[in-house]
Amino acid sequence: MTLEKTLKPTESELEILQVLWQHGPSTVRFVHEELSKNKEVGYTTTLKLMQIMADKQMLDVDKSSRSHIYYAALEEEKTQQQLLGRFLDAAFRGSASKLVMQALGNSNTSKAELDEIRNLLDKLEGGSK
Amino acid sequence: MTLEKTLKPTESELEILQVLWQHGPSTVRFVHEELSKNKEVGYTTTLKLMQIMADKQMLDVDKSSRSHIYYAALEEEKTQQQLLGRFLDAAFRGSASKLVMQALGNSNTSKAELDEIRNLLDKLEGGSK
DNA sequence: TTCCTTTTACGAAATCATTCGTATATACTT
DNA sequence: AAGTATATACGAATGATTTCGTAAAAGGAA
């Protein structure tokens, strides 16, 4: 088992990770253009951030071609799980059901997704005896 | 309708809000002692933070007695809702069902709470037609 | 080759959050 | 009253995050 350092991506870092998770390995240029869809940001800012993230081992880099290719080094689900745990404590004092209720109440979730959640509930209640 | 500035409490600020939400209006001393249960922190640090929060109108202060009494000026649910919205976008790219599934999967939620969630699901599916 | 564009490298500034030392005021204790 | 404890006020240091200017390197176009 490898040393699982529990890195905490900052908000900006998370934005970059999201691009890489969604689109796969990318150049700085591509990531920068994605980020630019949502906010004003300078190219070298994005570059610097990604370099820092590579330093922290959040990203891997392939430097074989001129435009370096960056890879997310953190797994999406594992990272989300960690963030969620922290958020749950910080914002909801650990009450998962409160969080879930609010999340469901305030978002347009499709019937299919609701059914998926219901299935999970069935499994959970079944197992919890 | 009053100007609803959408303040974003920082992590430390949120810790203080949690104490006030949970215990009601409190002195700096009390809040500080609550925080100290979880982490090392200096008294003047807590004081300063609460003063800053009062500046930002996150807290109201009653200065009539020597030990000032601080009140949460933000509603718990409304604040949680805002934080949740942001978190959902930042960490789950807006997918509430993914968040909910992960939250349920990884926390020990009681049968009673699961049933409560199920009821909400029923209401949602009913209404969404 | 020369010029223009794109990329990375580097370093530092700007911003924001957190922490705390010190001073001063107020109340309590003896 | 004198001394001690506890409170707020103030200002500044620290630290982390974010931003970006400038330069150097690499590649492509004329």
Automatic annotation (TrEMBL), chains A, B:
Belongs to the BlaI transcriptional regulatory family. One of its GO terms (biological process) is negative regulation of DNA-templated transcription. GO terms for molecular function: DNA binding. Pfam families: Penicillinase_R. Gene3D superfamilies: Penicillinase repressor domain, Winged helix-like DNA-binding domain superfamily/Winged helix DNA-binding domain. Coiled coil: none annotated. The keyword Cell cycle does not apply. Keywords: DNA-binding, Transcription, Transcription regulation. This is BlaI/MecI/CopY family transcriptional regulator. It comes from Pontibacter cellulosilyticus. The keyword Transcription regulation applies.
